[in-house]
Amino acid sequence: MAIGCLTVDFREQLRRTWTKPAHDEHTNGVMNANENSPLLGHSSAEADRTGFWRNVFLDRRHTPGIDSPNPLVKWPARAFNVTKVTLLSSPINILLVFVPIGIFAGAHEWDPTTVFTLNFFAIIPLAAVLSFATEEISVRLGDTMGGLLNATFGNAVELIVSIVALKAGEIEVVQSSMLGSILSNLLLVLGMCFLLGGIRHMRDDEGAGIEQTFTTATAQTTCSLMTLSSASLVIPAALYAVLDHTSNDQDKDSSILFLSRGTAIILLLLYVLYLYFQLRTHKNLFTPEAPLLLEEEEEEQVSMSAFSAGAVLIAVTVVVAICADYLVGSIDDIVQSHHISKNFIGLILIPIVGNAAEHVTACVVALRNKMDLAMGVAIGSSIQIALLVTPFLVILGWIIGQPMTLHFETFETIAFAFSVLVVTYIVQDGKSNYLEGAMLLGLYMIIALAFWASPSGALDNYLAPAH
């Protein structure tokens, strides 16, 4: 769902991915005759009724009554319009039917597996709605503020789920979900983009094999930041291993907590500097080439007011928190009953929840040969998780008394470091093809198999520092 600090052109392209201008024969409920209009069978009254109901239920930009001078008509019409626009914003929203069912199941303490599954599918469309509401607001704010808003709400679902898990003391789940979100974007999403885009654009008009291209500055800068974030996890793990033989547990835990909290502050400062670099001083380096912007030049329009989008953002955030609470609360029972590692749930399953909407979007734009946008979606989201969300959770744990550190489970750290290394080598030339996409997907499946094959509790016995 997270887009990363995209430019205005990027955000416009994302919106066009799902939003198509209406091309029908009705304008404001009136039938416009043309050479294809039937001579018999449709009276003007029938056309008027058809156009009216089409505007009521299917028109994403207008609902009859929203401009009425009568407040008893205007405000209900506007509330209905916001609801309609939100529901029609993405095909994924068909899964919203799971939201009330999942909340009901959690409130009435159904079987933990059922509660987890229902709320798992409920959060997926809620993530898409959050992304849509964020875009509606950011269109009005311009480049800088729009980018900051995307940075704040781009990974809202992962952040909410992780805060709920952190308050519950599920530090292993929080750490695994953070790494899992990064890996799913770097390997699964980027791999699918390279694979599908490479197959769709495999040959040129003369039959010769071709590669898709993207801005090298974007790849180099983001991969350098990902390498830095990888080092921020390897260093605490290395220090922990050294202190394991020279210090008692209390001193060792204190050292790791001090290192993690200091590193988290540094990473947050670097992320702010990265925002300034991308949105202000060097934003030209992150702008796609002109040919990518020539396909659809229609004027960017918004579907709801900033106030309405903000209300949707707040309401959906509350619902996501409720569903996340039930989802996290069922994890322990699922681990015990199905013998699944918490690391597998956090690393593989939970990231699917928060990233489903952007997974689809990235693949669609890759098929349209807009690889700069696909890179911005996939790697930009990874940067947010690594340099913003994870350090923020360390600081939040410090505030609420939970010993959240950057000392992740050793196997997770190794998998993350190798993944960043592989992605860096693949994208540094600014070109992609379906074979490189298959390699990224293969690495992701190997990591998923490794965590699935690990016995329940084998990786969950990582001992977080004591208070």
From TrEMBL:
It is a multi-pass membrane protein. The chain crosses the membrane at residues 85-107, 113-133, 145-166, 178-199, 219-243, 255-277, 306-328, 344-367, 374-400, 406-427, 434-453. Signal peptide: none annotated. GO terms for biological process: intracellular calcium ion homeostasis. Has a role in promoting intracellular calcium ion sequestration via the exchange of calcium ions for hydrogen ions across the vacuolar membrane. Involved also in manganese ion homeostasis via its uptake into the vacuole. Belongs to the Ca(2+):cation antiporter (CaCA) (TC 2.A.19) family. This is Vacuolar calcium ion transporter. It comes from Phialemonium atrogriseum.
